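Researcher: Here's the sequence for the chain we discussed earlier.
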Amino acid sequence: MGKSKNLSRKEFIKLSSLATAGGILLPKFLISQECDLTTVDILGPYYDGDAPFRIYLAPLDEPGTPVTISGTILGQDCETPLANTLVEVWHANADGCYSIFQMCDTGNSENDEFHLRGKMLTNVDGYYEFHTIQPGYYAGRPKHFHIKFTAPDETVLVTQIYFADDPLMEDESWEENAEERIVTLTPTENGMVGEFNIVLDAEPLELLLGDVNFDGQLNVSDIIMIVNIILGVIQPTDNELYVADINQDGIINIVDVISLVNIILNQTYKNLPNPDIAKFEISDNEIKLLTEGPIAGIQLELTGEFESKEISLPNGWEHYYHNGRLVLVNLNGPQIDNPTTIFKFSGEISIFSIIVCGWNEKLIQAEIGSIISNFKVELPYPNPFNPAVKIGYSTKIDGKINISVFNIRGKFIETIYSNDIFSGSHELIWEPKSLPTGVYLIKFESAKEVHYRQVIYLK
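Model: Thanks. This is the structure I predict for it:
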């Protein structure tokens, strides 16, 4: 890579504007040195700190009125957004029953262990949001959400949100402290929407996106730390997790690595086109990349009974491997040729999931075994999509095909189709039922070929 370029915070903000989340306009009444801290409320008996990270707390068919709550969290100076604040939410169902702690007769069609519970981190602007249903009445109390906030400096606030025009608020024992926590809900075509802005008695921390080792600079050491997070070599803290997610999409993967490489190189390749498809081939002892167009990084999840072997890559490429996870990164820019062989092994191997990133920090579609011409998969349309995506595919021979969906971390989501098909043209239409916005991999697998299509689902 040559000598790495160290960036100050001021330079980073200028160079990484494309990689961070868009600005959130803060309400004018909050931009002030004089403001009131958000008040506390009771924790209640049904808190569980093991709830998963997610912003969609309820399945689509959950009984009740859909509700979206969003807001901005500010620090003790009343104007600095608190990025990377942990927001934990839990509440009763429409009948006032708390799942996992009580036996509920309605809702939870997916038998979710943490039904109507979730946690999330605020983005660089201190912004958060979650989607669920309006809770019912529990034990004679007003309808309410329980929320616990934990700032990066470990300041904790436990409180509750109530709703305007709730008749039971008149008898609520905490009413005198809850005036600023009574949310007005506005009806929309997608349900009710409310805003809840928070001021915490917390000291804002200067967190530099990409500075995973917190030394105030961006260099190859930070790249290696992000790679080690992807490989599972290290278990990141909340702050490390936050700054490693450079594009602020909630996922740490090869795209964040390439974003950081571009920042360090002081280059932007936004207009550099990607190859349409990255083609791979698995032979007896190696995985080959058959595409010559410029590729910036590759992330693979490998399975099977195999052992890795030493490999030599072109100058400028780096190879990282741990427990079946493989990351390859071009550290010098698109002028460097792609490697032909990306992994050597002995034994039996298969690729469970694959993510390929271009220099414009966009995903590239991937195919495995694509030199075999019996099976062809078209590009998804539309992409991004909502509510459904269409993918055409064709085969020259009869045979069995498996079509399945994985999230970008490689976790299996569902099988769309698994059966025999006749030769000819076919069409897949996939409509997610209760999945959050994100990138998903659709895997088409025949006897000798595997094709991956990466799609972006927008709610």
